[in-house]
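Researcher: Next entry in the queue.
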Amino acid sequence: MRVGVKYCGHCNPEVEGPELVAQILALAPEITAVTWEEDMDILLVISSCAFDCVSHPVFQGPVVNVAGRFVERVVHPLQDLPSAILVKIREKVTALQSELNRGNSTLID
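Model: Structure for this entry, 109 residues:
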């Protein structure tokens, strides 16, 4: 699964975006991280703080938003962030695949 990653400008960091992505990749070898400008199955938008000032690119597929310790507006302890993000990625990809299967189509490998 190809996860496109979009980071903020890192002006007020509460979390380290690249470190989060590295931890997610260590937990999920089936994921390949790519830039948000490449072909992707899901978009991961990471703001390093709760202000969530990062620009959100136009993407028609599933998106997971991280803002500091918040994953999709739910706060998590810092040590749980990588696994919480991974759970949300898998949930959204599974939901999309189920939707596509109803239409007998495949988008995600």
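Model: Helices lie at 17-27, 81-102.
Researcher: Noted, moving on.
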